[in-house]
């Protein structure tokens, strides 16, 4: 059996776990390629109206995989990975949305319900519904999931050591620790880039913003590099947080970055039409004012040009550099 994994949405956070899970079951996986304008066009053509661009892109990747010889496409229904919190409604309905909008997916869909108490997805019973579909026993599924969980924990340790997601994936695949060496520049900046993983690490949506910032002489930190306990502690000041897991992560990370004296400024990358981000963005703006720290929002959709992003990022870094290193 050959299973397709769309390179979109939570692929950038959970791909090492899912890859290890299927490989431990001796099931071949096929990952769709990097997002291209053609994939986006296919996604727009096959998705429902008024949906956010990350979902359109996911739809395009599903179409791309169905054009290959995969037997099934893995689209889990992400419900919860912590108590009393949920994923965005679009994630809750993602398998159904794809089933009824993408031609040819019916009968080739693997869609387990993921309801866990922790983000490591360590509740193997969520995957037991796949056992019959994959022709595997429940014991085999549990054993494979134990292997996958270990792989994912290594992935997360790479993050906490200071690697971003691209660097952590490279470390897992190459079995080595890639080290980023910044260009020699005494006037370096440290900029926090905040956003859902699929907005920052998809080269089409985020337009390689981390690489651009580094070329402009900035060190970049992202939310996944922070310790989970530290992020949770920042949220304790709220009597009530948002109902969405990853939105809360970004809110807590935002507080951490704004209060960190080493951070010179922060950029929030968000997709047009994102409901949770419409609330998160305003909260971050208020917090930025309270802390007197430079903050910029970059909102993208399928029509956003790279020149637009590059110009704004360059202007932002120039402003930060003038603020940090004033000409006397």
Describe this entry's structure for a reader:
With 328 residues, the protein is of the alpha/beta class. It folds into two domains: 2-160, Rossmann fold (3-Layer(aba) Sandwich); 181-324, 3-Layer(aba) Sandwich (Rossmann fold), CATH 3.40.50. The protein contains 14 helices and ten strands. Strands 2-1-3-5 form a four-stranded parallel β-sheet, with helices on both faces. The protein has a four-stranded parallel β-sheet with strand order 8-7-9-10, sandwiched between helices. A two-stranded parallel sheet has the order 4-6. α2 (37-46) packs across α3. The N and C termini lie far apart (67 Å).
Short synopsis of the structure:
The protein has 328 residues and is an alpha/beta fold.
Brief descriptors of the model:
Rossmann fold, globular, 2 domains, 328 residues, alpha/beta, 4-stranded parallel sheet
Strand content: 5-15%
| Protein structure class | alpha/beta
Oligomerization category of the chains in this entry? single chain
Instruction: Provide mean pLDDT, rounded.
Output: 88
Rg over C-alpha atoms, rounded to the nearest angstrom: 20 Å
**How many H/I helical runs?**
14
How many independent structural domains?
Answer: 2
Bulk shape? globular
From the N-terminal CA to the C-terminal CA, the straight-line distance is 67 Å
Q: Using DSSP, what is the number of strands?
A: 10
Q: What is the string of helix and strand elements?
A: EHEHHEEHHEEHHHEHHEHHEHEH
Look up the CATH topology of the largest domain: Rossmann fold
Major sheet: size, sense and barrel closure?
Answer: 4 strands, parallel
Strand order of the largest sheet: 2-1-3-5
Model regions low in confidence, pLDDT < 50 over at least 5 residues? none
CATH architecture of the largest domain, by name, is 3-Layer(aba) Sandwich
Specify the CATH class of the largest domain: Alpha Beta
Give the fraction of residues assigned to helices.
40-55%
